[in-house]
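::Amino acid chain::
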Amino acid sequence: MISRTLLSLVLCGTAGAVAAGPLDEPHLNILPRTAKEAARIAGVTAPPENFDKPSKYEHLSAGAATVRRRADADAFSQPSGNISFAGELDFRVGDGLFRKLWVSSPSSTKASDGLGPLYNARSCQRCHIKDGRGHPPEGPDDSAVSMFLRISIPGTAADAPAGIDGYIPTRPDPSYGKQMQDFSLAGHEAEYRLQIDYEEIEVPLAGGETAWLRKPTYRAADLGYGPLHPQAMLSPRIAPPMIGLGLLEAIPAADILANADPDDADGDGISGRANIVHSVEFGMPMLGRFGLKAGSPTVREQSAGAFAGDIGISTPLFVDPWGECTEAQADCRAAPHGDGDDRVFEVDEIGLDLVAFYSRNLGVPARSDAGDRVVLAGKKVFHATGCANCHRPAFVTHRLEDRPEQSFQLIWPYSDLLLHDMGEGLADNRPEGRATGREWRTPPLWGIGLTEQVSGHSFFLHDGRARSLLEAVLWHGGEAQKQRDAVAAMPPEERAALIRFLESL
């Protein structure tokens, strides 16, 4: 276990307090930073100037919460490296709830009934396999259990929450809601079957190399409840990795917003924007951090939303026992649910808190080979090419009174958690909050080199279309077009070093 105080030796200081930032963070019990601490933080998170050796503490991706880099499929399933004994007990109970297979109602297993009636998976773990990355179905016999289609139709100004400038209003599809479920209980029709067709595209690279990209086309086939709305917008999503979520939640909103440049005032072609969303839990606008378009503000709210949409399970935040069933799906709403007897919700407050605690404390593995010559060369390419303009390497989390595992850690997520226009090639043409149909949140890169080891595949991006890290880079467009073109044009040895650097994260 890594010492809790290891990084505090770098960061601590004394002086007057510094304000927390422009957005309230009611989910966090924050202790203020001092001015001296803020200066030290600016120093340790500054871009590197020397690429002959790793930055100090760079190998500890999650600060004192970093876990050892295992060589098996459980590399993403370890608790925070600095968790207490009591905290680990809560983590294990939360793990059990995360893995629980839900069953239909009525059932003799009262603590586990309430599934569906329409759903995408029977447990959280079925989508986030080994707490890692989901994948698109590969072949006709493969399930789409870790992938689904979000759906919405254009809304009106009345559908936009108050107090959020630039919010793009949408409404659920009247027949299919906000998310399409491809599984159902006996006696109920599933909503659809996900159909994907790929077109192979050849991409010439400098040095005589060639890459192939697969361009997907998505269709909601075998519709169970009539046609989609004529203006329905569909967005494919695979389940993202679960590691480090509590640390991302603990990054000060002010530090994230400090990197936003919505009008590209500095002229570098990068115009990161914050997604501001309405929090169901707190009834107020908050900074979106989670989800592929940063559509959720907290780990707890994201967890409750997944219970409702993915499994059809009610919680204190999303109270409908039928999950996502619409008014047009009357049989689904009228079916037996798991909220009878003395149960108000199918997952109560304690259960939701335990799943949220588990999700916050899935440890980030340590870097591998941070001092390797090729890795350092790739790091230099990463910065020189401008990849770090969006994939910001380092932050320091808030000091938190009640979350010691996430409190005041120097972390290396390689994300600014902001929205960026990724070009027409990656556009889903479906807005979410303030995110347009061309914008996506910068995904954290920590742990990305362990994807195949943990998840058994190497599929990347929001829909898993990229079959390698190089393919993922080559799909970049929009604000990242310049960087993508630079990677395609660089000598093969530089391109290989860049990929080797990413694999070390």
